[in-house]
Amino acid sequence: MSKESNLKQRVYRRKTNRTDFYDNFVKPLVLKRDKNKCTKCGSADNLVVHHKHYDMDTLTYYDLVTLCRSCHKIEHNWSKWRLKNDLV
C-alpha cells in the first residue's frame, strides 16, 4: 500500500469515527513519542493522553501530551484556576 493511499485511509477513518482513529492511531503515537512516561513526573503508571487545548477541530499531534492520572488531575485543576483568574 502506498503512503498516499495509507494517508487517505487514515483521514477517512478520522472523518468517519474520531474515537477509533484517536484510540487506535493517535494515542499510541503520543505514548511512543513520550516514551510511555508522564512528561511531568516521569511515572510509567496509569498513563493518559491529555489535550493541552480542547478545540477538537484544530487538534494536532503537538497539542497532546502523556500524563499520569495524578498529573492529569493537577493539570485540569490548574487550568480551571487559570481560567477563573483570567490568566489564560
In short:
This protein is 52% helix and 11% strand. It has 88 residues and is mainly alpha-helical.
Structure description:
The chain contains three helices and two strands. The mean pLDDT is 76. The protein is globular and about 30 Å long. By secondary structure, it is mainly alpha-helical. It has one domain (3-84). The chain has helices spanning 3-16, 18-33, 69-84, and strands at residues 47-51, 64-68. Helix 1 (3-16) packs across helix 2.
Percent of residues in β-strands: 5-15%
Number of strands: 2
Question: Structural class, from helix and strand content?
Answer: mainly alpha
Through-space gap between termini: 44 Å
Largest sheet: 2 strands, antiparallel
Topology:
Layout: H1 3-16, H2 18-33, E1 47-51, E2 64-68, H3 69-84
Antiparallel strand pairs: 1-2
List keywords for this structure.
single chain; 88 residues; mainly alpha; two-stranded antiparallel ribbon; 3 helices; globular
